[in-house]
Amino acid sequence: MASPAAEAGLRLGNQRVLFVGGKGGVGKTTTSSALGVALSRRGERVLLVSTDPAHSLGDLWARTIGDREVPLAPNLTGMEINPDAEVRAYLETVGATMRDLVSEKMHPQIERQLELARLSPGAVEAAMLERMSEIILDRDHRFDRIIFDTAPTGHTLRLLSLPEVMASWTDGLLGQRDRSESYDETLKKLRPTTGANIELDKAAADAEREDERSSRIRTVLVDRREKFRQVRHILLEHNHSGFILVLIPERLPILESLKAAEALREYHVPLLGMVVNRVLPAEPLGDFLEQRREREASYLRQIEEGFPEIPRIHVPLQEHDVEGMESLGRIGAALLGEESRS
User: Fold this and answer.
1) Is a pLDDT exceeding 90 seen at residue 30?
2) Where in the chain is CATH 3.40.50.300?
3) Residue 304 near residue 6 (C-beta atoms within 8 A)
4) Sequence-distant (≥ 6) Cβ neighbours of residue 290 within 8 angstroms
């Protein structure tokens, strides 16, 4: 028999940002879509965002979505973020900013650094964090809920750790700017007050341009730091965001989920609940599947022992592929502990 935690619905409050994650192939897109349908039927305005490079959101909904807002149902909007395109756009923006802030002779070096950054580990996560931050911090608040259908667990956890890392990195850059500006001020005081007026005027003009450039650099860095700090606050605040883990009753997904839960605790990201997908139905299944059910029962016990306090929703293995509003609505209602509505 299922434990009490397995009987409860997901502990959703008013969290505006929800992450649905887990090992690849366990049903994250189906779960996030079903949850979006159920919440939208409550009258909430929901944005469903796929950040997985292997997008299946459009396949599930049988329509082309892409990197734009597409209506999926009343109160429900979908979007697929393309990681490669985000990296290109992110680096183009960074490059344009840097070229605007440094002397022209430095431009070739900037191009070389950007090309290296394009291939470096973490480039995708940094670009995705920028885009997700824009979505989360949307000042218009057009959506009551934002559900991120995420990439496999490891990628998502690295993404969740980035706001703190990038805020600290920006603080370091600001510290360097402060030291550089202090050094420049010292040099200005040591400049001779005599000599040709032309030279003095040129030096003054150069100093003024440098001051303006430093001010613009500081503005860019301060804005980025503030953005990442706001996102970090949202991700770590139980009233603002939460994580839902999806798994199936098999050994590897259970092990990955245990590691993910530990990482979420380490990052202080709230774990709102778990969806145990593709659980065999209670009806007699024949010898072959009965043996499979015995093995499944041992895995379900492992899940119960590994996550005793986390709400767990068991989603039965479906007779047919999950597609369309009716089947998504049934699953979504089960996730929220509600009666199914067509």
Assistant:
1) yes
2) 4-86+124-167+234-335
3) yes
4) 284
